[in-house]
Amino acid sequence: MSEAIVEFIPPDLNRTLILDVGCAKGYVGHQIRIKKMGDPIILGLDIWVPYIKHIKNVHVSYARIYNDLIIADAICMPFREHVFNLLIASELLEHLSREDGFRLLNELERICKNRIITSTPSRFFEQGEVDSNPYQRHLSLWKEEDLIKLGYEVKIIYVKQPRVSEIVDKIRLFFRLPRSLGVMVAWKTL
User: Which string of DSSP letters, residue by residue, matches 104-125?
Assistant: First the structure.
């Protein structure tokens, strides 16, 4: 999922102030560091303290992903208005109620001055706690129309695993199976 998001980020990020909202274990930040040019300032924000500790202490290779890490609730972030050049909220909306999801999107627009990129699964699937983190539960489904109405451009990306996908596609011809799970990526330029 993090690799799909990075494709929507400009190639040269020199002097770009980025906030990775809901950074979890730092996958998106890591992808930015290895795939993009320039020397951006990247901050990671997450509500789950063990993820922040994980980034700081466990993975030596991740030690230089973020310039700083912040523990905070994404729907009420401690930043002034229009501070960040780029905001990324990857795989976060589905973990919030619809009401809180709309609050998050408003908060992103409040603190961003250039571009917001968000993503969420293309269909709902049950997910409970992951890594003993209660915030990892899936609580809502988001559709293209939800984000288009708010001024976002939207693209659904299906990540295929070649051999498995070919077999599933052939079986799908005979049985009514749900479509593959995709990632809905939405971006908005302010």
Answer: HHHHHHHHEEEEEEEEEESS--
Q: Look up the pTM and report it.
A: 0.86
In the chain, the number of structural domains is 1
Give the CATH number for residue 167.
3.40.50.150
Q: How far apart are CA 31 and CA 23, in angstroms?
A: 12
Instruction: Report which residue type is found at 84.
Output: F
Q: List the 112-121 sheet strands across, edge first.
A: 68-71, 41-46, 17-21, 84-90, 112-121, 182-189, 153-158
The answer to whether 114 touches 190, Cβ cutoff 8 Å, is yes
Distance CA 129, CA 45 (A): 19
pLDDT at 161 over 80: no
Beta bridge partner(s), residue 37: 12
